[in-house]
Amino acid sequence: MSGALPPRLPPSFRLLSYDRLGSTNDEAKRLARDDGAAHGTVVWALEQTQGHGRTGRVWASPPGNLYCSTVLRPDCPAARAAEIGFVAALAVGNVLTPLLPASARLGYKWPNDVLVGGRKVSGILAEAQSRAITGSGGGGAGTLDWLVVGIGVNVASHPSDARWPATNLAEENAAPVTVPVLLEQLIGHLARWLRRWQEEGFPIVRTAWLERAAGLGEPMTARLGTVEIPGRFADLDADGALLLDTGREIRRIAAGEVFPTITTA
């Protein structure tokens, strides 16, 4: 990679760096699936030409921001894969908090974004492959083969036409930081939170995430495909699902998008 000092990553992580890629997540998935890439393989690009988020939504990826994807191979059931998105959010929060002004409001938007002042500064995309457990009478249960967690952080710029309002670190008057240093710090925090998650389980992650949960206790609308369900963000379930109080029942939302409910006088 031209013009960049290589970040120093934790011993169990290996860096693959590129000036330009179509998508760091796509490359990391290819390496995990086809080449058996080891746990801790980090794919980093200065620019993405085909960056994308959840549901394939295009994400602008010009030079100056952070784009990385990490191959993880935790020994856990496939059903726990979604928990790692919350782990990654905490790592991002730990990196950004000391850089931002004390007045900045950093929050975690369910299920996979990090906000500053209600605007998106970072997105997380986790994609996994599992394998069936044979001979165990599991009835279709599976174990995680690999998971790729992609993280983007808007450092110098952000898209102006995003579905959710966006921002970047420079606009939020954050302390100056180079992308290589940000990556180094991010992977360090990711490694620590992964270790805590593996040793202590999801409850420690859930508690830390809820401390900065955006919209907790407030009116919120969950969008499930073409269906919208208004309610109030009541809590986070034990496995990371959002609990939505509709006034008639508590709905468990395992996948979907959420938006603040706009009320009129």
State the helical fraction.
10-25%
CATH class of the largest domain: Alpha Beta
Largest sheet: 7 strands, mixed
Structural class: alpha+beta
Number of strands: 12
**Radius of gyration of CA atoms, rounded to a whole number:** 18 Å
CATH topology of the largest domain: BirA Bifunctional Protein, domain 2
CATH H-level name of the largest domain... which superfamily?
Answer: Bira Bifunctional Protein, Domain 2
Characterization of the model:
- 21% of the residues lie in helices and 32% in strands.
- By secondary structure, the chain is of the alpha+beta class.
- It has two domains: 14-210, Bira Bifunctional Protein, Domain 2 (BirA Bifunctional Protein, domain 2, 2-Layer Sandwich), CATH 3.30.930; 219-260, SH3 type barrels (Roll).
- A seven-stranded mixed β-sheet has the order 1-2-3-7-6-5-4, with helices on both faces.
Describe the SSE topology.
Blueprint lengths: L13 E8 L2 H11 L6 E8 L17 E7 L10 H14 L9 E4 L3 E4 L2 E14 L9 E12 L25 H22 L1 H9 L8 E6 L2 E10 L5 E4 L4 E4 L3 E4 L5
Parallel strand pairs: 1-2
Antiparallel strand pairs: 2-3, 3-7, 4-5, 5-6, 6-7, 8-9, 8-12, 9-10, 10-11
Helix pairs in contact: 2-3, 2-4, 3-4
Short summary of the structure?
21% of the residues lie in helices and 32% in strands. The chain has helices at residues 24-34, 83-96, 179-200, 202-210; strands spanning 14-21, 41-48, 66-72, 106-109, 113-116, 119-132, 142-153, 219-224, 227-236, 242-245, 250-253, 257-260. A hairpin with a 2-residue loop joins strand 8 and strand 9 (227-236).
